[in-house]
Write a structure and sequence with these properties.
Helices cover 35% and strands 20% of the residues. Helix 3 links the parallel strand 2 and strand 3. The chain is built from 4 helices and 5 strands; from the N terminus they run αβαβαββαβ. A 5-stranded parallel beta sheet has the order 1-5-2-3-4. The longest helix is centred in the middle third of the chain and has 14 residues. It is an alpha/beta fold.
Amino acid sequence: MLRRRYCAMVEDAGYEVQPFAAVDELVSACLASAKRFDLLVMAFPGDVSRVVLGLERVCRMISNSVGGLLILEERQIDAVHQVRWVLPRDFILAPFDDEEFRLRLARCGPAAGLAQQPPATAASTLAEAAYR
């Protein structure tokens, strides 16, 4: 239910959405394809350590020019202090309203100063698999 809501909000912001159920799927897509992602919208279930593991894995394989929006639960907030980010990347605490989500997307997407290659593509990563 929430995943569909997030994807719909990303599409409403003008992005083409490419959802991934797990970090492994996102990594494989980025390595196997010439497709370029302009923005990653990520949410990881579980505790802070799972968020950090997933985020570190994603950050190692993406360019510093890719924007990222991390959706966190309040219990996961310490994860933002444990991973080195390069702007334009941001996080948002759930629950949030549609307007706040749109503002955060605008803050870290291509319009925030990143080179845009139309159509902009967002990879929505809602990792549900266990990390190895």
